[in-house]
Design brief:
- The chain is an alpha+beta fold.
- It folds into three domains: about 1-80, Roll (SH3 type barrels); about 90-265, no CATH class; about 280-485, Cathepsin B, Chain A, CATH 3.90.70.
- The protein has helices at about 1-10, 65-75, 90-95, 110-120, 195-215, 265, 275-285, 310-325, 330-335, 345-360, 375-380, 395-410, 415-425, 470-475, and strands spanning about 25-30, 35-45, 45-50, 55-60, 125, 130-135, 150-155, 160-170, 220-225, 235-240, 245-250, 255-260, 290, 295-300, 365-370, 385-390, 435-445, 450-455, 465-470, 475-485.
- Strands 5-6-7-8-12-11-10-9 form an eight-stranded antiparallel β-sheet. Strands 13, 14, 15, 16, 17, 18, 19 and 20 form an eight-stranded antiparallel β-sheet that branches.
- The relative contact order is 0.11.
């Protein structure tokens, strides 16, 4: 049983959605020749779910299977029911989009890298099987007759799975002057912030609905998403074209968003199939890297770039949740966390708001307050589970972490490095600045050098940085959270 699970994992697991279908048991084989006896249970987007004889189900990308298996599956989600708009040419639909998004081939059979290049969306993250692309666009970038602040595209094995576009919203409308460490340098939101947000949202909502209705006719109104009304389940306006569903949603006072998904996913109301703990545990352990110098680091955690706004908590929570198979989006999480205009989120409020959804996906979360203890950190890291850590990300802290991380890349004598960082740490004073509240993922440790590795939601350049435990304690808010199993 354990061997079979490992074989399926080797085929290339994904955490995408899947919907009901039945078939007989057969041998499925991946491109590397690894095989497993399983039954095809469901297909959605570029994802198939297989079931072993013991009843365990495993989602994985269709494109990770052999050509014969792909033909057997026959990608049923591409054989969509004909609709009244399907005779419309891609160029005509692209007029409504305002960008060269669609072509004769469905988005979901297209190369994500090629689509990203065409739409000028840089890569945000890449793991073994999944990738994401995100652009925080300039003011003149238009889609559906409005300006999207964030254009995100998600993919598995280089096949597009969905788009998430965020227009007027209370974060980006009051964003900081810079990204990364500069996101703390921001203006105070104006007193009339709520009025400004509502006016901008109403304008974008009308423009987007108008552009789509003009081309594709009147929309259907449906409920879409998981969780509570506040967190993720909203009433959307839906337009269909050739197997694509374009969904326009408004979270009052929060954001206007557009999702582009398969019609199968839209028909299922955006429900995502659960992934069992056994699968998640195996994936997490497979991502654990033990280096010759004593570093123990978790790899393959998706990056989410919060952009030039104070969305570190929603972005970090999204990373932790998606890593363990819980669907998440930082803009929806900002709603759950009651994020302020421009940023600033209550992590406890956010997680308490998401608790039902986390538990529904068979995950858990722990929370505690206290001093840094390497033993406590190692307990989670050794299972492949990152920790969320609240800290004060001061200029001096970042200078220390950046310098230490750069120097580490050229170290060959680790005994000498231990002596060096121990001495520097003992003489380093890192003050706490209450205006620089931040949250990161702790992704690794080194017991011998007494260091921890952490990852910021500021893009790939910040995916792994190092600091000693005593230095971390100086800037710690002594609050930790873990989405786990």
């Amino acid at each position: 049983m354990k061997h079979a699970a490992n074989v399926v994992l080797a085929l290339g697991l994904s955490l995408a959605t899947a919907f009901a279908q039945t078939s007989e048991f057969r041998t499925f084989t991946n491109a590397q020749g690894r095989a497993v006896q399983a039954k095809l249970v469901s297909v959605s987007g570029p994802t198939v779910t297989l079931e072993l004889a013991n009843g365990q189900r495993f989602p994985l990308a269709i494109t990770s299977l052999s050509a014969a298996d792909q033909q057997y599956i026959n990608t049923p989600k591409y054989t969509f029911k004909p609709g009244p708009n399907d005779k419309m040419e891609p160029a005509s639909v692209n007029e409504a989009v305002g960008q060269p998004m669609f072509d004769e081939a469905p988005l979901f059979t297209s190369s994500a890298e090629a689509i990203a290049a065409k739409l000028k969306i840089p890569q945000e993250s890449k793991t073994k099987t999944a990738s994401s692309y995100r652009a925080y666009t300039k003011d003149d970038y238009q889609m559906f007759g409005a300006h999207p602040y964030s254009v995100a595209m998600y993919a598995e094995n280089d096949k597009v799975t969905n788009f998430s576009l965020v227009f007027a919203n209370k974060g980006d409308l009051f964003s900081a002057k810079g990204s990364g460490e500069m996101h703390f340098d921001k203006d105070t939101p104006p007193a009339e912030a709520a009025k400004i947000v509502k006016t901008a949202m109403d304008k974008d909502l009308a423009a987007i609905a108008g552009a789509l209705t003009k081309k594709l006719g009147e929309p259907q109104k449906e409920r879409f998403g998981e969780g509570s009304n506040k967190i993720g389940r909203l009433t959307v306006q839906r337009w269909d074209w050739r197997g694509h569903s374009i969904l326009l949603a408004e979270a009052p006072g929060e954001y206007v968003g557009v999702q582009i998904v398969t019609t199968a996913f839209a028909d299922a109301g955006g429900k995502v199939e659960d992934t069992t703990d056994k699968v998640i545990r195996a994936q997490a352990l497979a991502n654990l890297e033990k280096r010759a110098n004593g570093d123990v680091v978790i790899g393959d955690i998706p990056m989410v770039d919060q952009g030039p706004k104070g969305y570190c908590a929603p972005a970090t929570a999204e990373r932790a949740m998606r890593y363990l198979g819980v669907p998440a989006d930082m803009y929806i999480l900002a709603n759950a966390g009651e994020t302020n205009f421009g940023g600033g989120t209550s992590v406890s409020t956010l997680l308490e708001g998401m608790a039902p959804q986390i538990r529904n996906k068979r995950r858990s979360f722990d929370a505690w307050q206290g001093e840094f203890k390497l033993k406590e950190i190692a307990k989670y890291i050794d299972k492949g589970v990152p920790l969320m850590w609240c800290l004060y990300s001061t200029d001096k802290f970042n200078e220390t972490a950046n310098k230490r991380t750069k120097e580490r890349k050229t170290v060959t004598e680790w005994a000498a490095w231990k002596t060096k960082v121990t001495g520097e740490s003992a003489n380093n004073s890192l003050p706490k600045d209450r205006e620089s509240g931040h949250i990161v993922l702790i992704i690794g440790y080194n017991k011998d050098t007494n260091e921890i590795a952490f990852s910021d939601s500021w893009g790939e350049r910040y995916k792994e940085r190092w600091i000693t435990l005593p230095e971390a304690e100086q800037v710690s808010q002594q609050r930790f959270y873990v989405v786990g199993f």
